[in-house]
Design a protein that fits this description.
- By secondary structure, the protein is an alpha+beta fold.
- Among the domains are: 148 residues, Ubiquitin-like (UB roll) (Roll); 90 residues, Ubiquitin-like (UB roll), CATH 3.10.20; 102 residues, membrane protein fhac (Ubiquitin-like (UB roll), Roll), CATH 3.10.20.310.
- Helices cover 17% and strands 39% of the residues.
- Strand 30 and strand 31 form a beta hairpin.
- Helix 2 crosses helix 5 and helix 10 crosses helix 11.
- Its main location: membrane.
Length: 767
């Protein structure tokens, strides 16, 4: 029988009641705008486009979406069926509106839109014009306004009969002796204009941009897509076919149709407005001029980041890649690449450019304080504070030294059981030295890595973890490795050297009893020395913020103890420097999907799977490398590290039950619907499911082993969350209650325990 803590239960229920009451009041008011609508008016809330084609049209759905996007004004949109923006507008425009109504109207008020505001005839002409741009000439349009007297709402319906579209017969480039015509013709293998395609103004614009991009890459610095013109001829056919011709406009400037080469490359590594350019020294290195008042950045170290070379043709992609590489060093605030045309003979068929690269440095030293969220699959999670000292360009080669002091505190309120209010404190100091190049025995060409030059990272850190009621854990960690971007989305990180020493101390009597009763757990703390290799792969499609579908994937692999086993000798467990060392392999993957189906409305999903396998010198994966479930970044309806392993339930008869319940296998799924409430405040409904297990039976923990019945052993919960999002800094409150508790007896696991919700406070989104 569980002992209920009345105080905590009352706190949680009160919090839930407050949140639900606020929501109810908000939407109760938001849905009651009909009383403000004038008697002879109807609120414009919907628009419909109906297409009836005369022939087969394969992309009819895309055409409909494009036509709807052209309609103006847009209908009034609702939030969960209500109109909060309209409500506050109406309230602010009555007599004596009051300060609060004025303030809310200023922040989120919305002007009403009525049926009489819709000019349907003008919209018909716009829709017909859009159809002509797609080849549907001589189409017919009509429209009507349908009014719902019961709800005081109106809908605009547009009916369009699509005529048979014009289709391309031939596409030709004018004949001319200018060399640029030959260049354009060479690119026709990549043309976007295809035989029998429907007439499309957008396709022609895209083809002009494609040719412009191609010519720029061939050195045509002054070319512009506006110099190209398309002409059509329908006189040769009677079945809605047309010929398409492409040519240059008349009187195009000569300098726009000749390629340019780079004659000089000037680099200013320490560009500042207060510098007198005439007093700067010039160092010639690698066919480039490095111009600075003193050696701020060594030319030898800066040259690999510059891909622009004397004698090369002008290339926008090379220029962009150079800017990106220089910006990745971490020593510069601004990177500005400017091209100047050099004097040239008008009869020359080749232009010349001077490439000037201006680099404005960041402050050499800085101190940064930040609030952050720490979440790891196998370690501490929660909000924290950090203080970092930064020294940039340390050895005049772009090196960065970071020295950080970190602290984090974690507590959860609510729920039931003996450990309500249990907390964790983590403190740490770490140093990180980053070289913006690859420190490797063999020199690697600067062109080998096309997108980014790998950084070499050396890390050393000491941390202290205090789990109240249980123990303190000290650790020293050192890493040496490389991190680099393969492209816009993909990042690799590999640490061929990763060493971690952990020391358990200050254990309480309660925790000593737990270890004595659980040899499996005792073993996980014994092997305190971890030395191995780690690799991380990240695909981040979230950088495309405007996309409807976004995907993120993070895969991690770690192995430890293999090299040490070649050195150490003796019987198992083997030691190195008098310390037992761990041998294990661990792999996990975290995939996330965001469906942004409406403005500020997202369905976010996440799947996580991970497993660690001990071998050789180890029977158990070290404690710090095990997984846990439950908490603000996991299954939010369960306290941190309180879920699992499997169906295990701590013995409540003990003074303290060990709530750091871990395993070497973890499965988890999360689903969340995010939507706006008011101004900076957003809401979310969520459902989480997951658990941890052991792949080897721990006799001290009943039901901890992974098996075929794992689906029935998932902890499942859901709830409601509120988030304040200030320029991507997110403060989050999530209130969750368990639906399915695997620690209960079979037949009782669907608990729907709404009386004991968990209140989570966190920084940042959960996924």
């Amino acid at each position: 029988m569980k002992v209920m803590n009345n105080k905590k239960t009352i706190f949680s229920i009160s919090t839930a009641q407050i949140l639900l009451t606020l929501l109810a009041v908000l939407f109760l008011y938001s849905c009651s705008v009909d009383r403000f609508i004038p008697e002879d008016k109807f609120l414009y809330t919907k628009e419909t486009v109906i297409l009836t084609p005369d022939s087969v049209v394969n992309d009819i759905a895309d055409i409909e979406l494009d036509l709807k996007a052209a309609l103006r004004p847009e209908p009034i949109s609702s939030v969960l069926g209500g109109y909060p923006g309209l409500y506050f507008h109406y309230k602010a425009n009555r007599e004596k509106p009051g300060f609060i109504n004025k303030f809310l109207n200023k922040k989120m008020g919305q002007e009403p839109l009525y049926d009489t505001d819709i000019e349907t005839y003008e919209m018909e002409q716009i829709l017909l014009n859009r159809l002509e741009n797609k080849g549907f000439f001589y189409s017919v349009a009509n429209s009507k306004i349908v009014r719902d007297t019961a709800n005081k709402e109106a809908e605009a319906i547009y009916n369009l009969c699509l005529s048979k579209p014009y289709r391309l017969k031939t596409f030709q480039l004018d004949n001319d002796t200018l060399p640029v015509y030959g260049k354009i013709k060479n690119s026709f293998s990549e043309t976007l204009i295809k035989p029998d395609m429907r007439f499309s103004l957008n396709a022609m614009k895209a083809e002009r941009e494609r040719i412009d991009t191609y010519l720029k890459a061939e050195g045509y610095y002054n070319f512009n897509s506006g110099f190209l013109i398309f002409e059509t001829d329908t006189n040769q056919y009677k079945n809605k076919k047309f010929d398409l011709f492409l040519r240059l406009k008349k009187d195009v400037p000569k300098k726009s149709i000749v390629p340019y080469k780079i004659a000089k490359v000037n680099i200013y590594p320490n560009n500042r407005v207060d510098l007198d350019s005439t007093a700067l020294d010039t160092i010639r290195f690698a066919e480039k001029d490095f111009i600075q008042d003193e050696v701020y950045f060594k030319p030898k170290r800066l040259d690999p980041f510059v891909l622009i070379e004397e004698g090369d043709f002008y290339s926008p992609s090379t220029s962009k890649a150079t800017g990106r590489r220089l910006g990745s060093i971490g020593a510069y605030k601004f990177v500005n690449i400017r091209y100047d045309e050099l004097e040239n003979n008008d009869e020359d068929s080749l232009g010349q450019l001077s490439a000037n690269i201006f680099l404005s440095p960041l402050n050499k030293r800085a101190v940064r304080a930040e609030v952050k969220a720490v979440t790891k699959s196998n370690g501490f999670s929660g909000p924290g504070l950090g203080l970092t000292f930064i020294n940039r360009n340390l050895f005049k080669g772009g090196e960065t030294l970071n020295i950080s002091l970190d602290g984090a505190y974690e507590i959860q309120a609510g729920g039931s059981g003996n450990n309500q209010g249990s907390s964790s404190i983590q403190l740490g100091v770490s140093g990180e030295l980053i070289f913006p190049r690859m420190l490797f025995p063999i020199e690697i060409s600067k062109n080998y890595f096309k997108y980014d030059i790998p950084k070499t990272r050396m890390q050393l850190g000491v941390s202290y973890l205090n789990r109240t009621q249980y123990f303190t854990l000290g650790s020293v960690e050192a890493k040496f490795g490389y991190v680099w971007q393969a492209n816009k989305y993909v990042t690799h990180e590999i640490n061929p050297v990763s060493i971690n020493y952990v020391s358990l101390a200050n254990t309480t009597a309660a925790f000593d009893e737990i270890l004595a009763a659980n040899p499996f757990l005792q073993t996980s703390f014994d092997q305190q020395f971890i030395s191995g290799l780690t690799y991380s792969f990240i695909y981040n499609g979230m950088v495309d913020t405007g996309k409807k579908h976004q995907i993120y994937f993070n895969g991690n692999f770690e192995t430890a103890g293999n090299s040490l086993s070649l050195i150490a000798g003796g019987d198992k467990p083997q030691t190195i420097f008098g310390l037992e060392y761990a041998q294990f392999a661990r792999i996990d993957g975290d995939i996330r999907y965001h469906f942004n189906f409406a403005e500020k409305q997202t369905i976010a999903a996440r799947l996580f799977a991970g497993i660690g396998i001990p071998y050789g010198n180890s029977d158990v994966v070290p404690y710090t490398k095990q997984y846990f479930a439950g908490g603000p970044y996991s299954v939010r309806a369960f306290r941190t590290r309180s879920l699992g392993p499997g169906t295990y339930q701590p013995d409540d008869s003990q003074t303290y039950s060990y709530y750091d319940q871990t395993g070497n296998l973890r499965l988890e799924a999360n689903l969340e619907y995010r939507f706006p409430l008011i101004s900076l405040l957003q809401g979310a409904f969520f459902v989480d499911a997951g658990n941890v297990w052991n792949t080897t039976d721990n006799e001290a923990l009943d039901g901890d082993t992974f098996g075929s019945d794992f689906m029935n052993q998932l902890g499942i919960g859901g709830g409601f969350g509120m988030r304040v999002d200030i320029q991507n800094f997110v403060i989050r409150l999530d209130l969750g209650a368990p639906f399915h508790d695997p620690s209960l007896a079979e037949g009782e696991r669907w608990s729907w325990d709404f009386e004991n919700p968990i209140l989570n406070f966190a920084i940042g989104y959960p996924f």
